[in-house]
Amino acid sequence: MKNLLFIFAVLLPWVCFAGYGPDSPQWYSVNDSVMGGISVGGPVKLENGVVRFAGILSLENNGGFSSIRAESDAFALQPGKEIVLTVKGDGRRYYLDLRTNRRQRAFTYRQGFQTKAGEMIEIRLPLAGFEATRFGRRMLNAAPLKPEDIGSVGITLSDKKPGPFRLDILS
Known about the structure:
mainly beta; seven-stranded antiparallel beta sheet; globular
């Protein structure tokens, strides 16, 4: 499988999502095993400060998603801003998930992005384009995203294509 490089930056203000500094978030995984699935995936910190999201997506036992998350007070963003992703992809579709400090079960604001196999591309995700979802389904009557309330970011793979994946996140 081709390497999948991921350069992840939030502009205005700058937030570092990878690395090992004192302000670096701690990544953890949430996979479909919480619902009986058998997908495996998670974060690994590499020597060069890269966080790798890798695993195997499975559709067995009603599964089909793998994700990583990080929590930090440093994610608070300003209204009207955007998140810029520079990715070298594998052709799969991923989601960037934003969670607020208000804890709600399986609730996230998300926006998808399509990678191109073997090509480095820049993707701009306006904060206004994130949709409220619960268990991956759009919520029509949810409150709009308040960027200043963001306390967690995540990346989810749920493209219904079983097999290995790998995503390297750089600062």
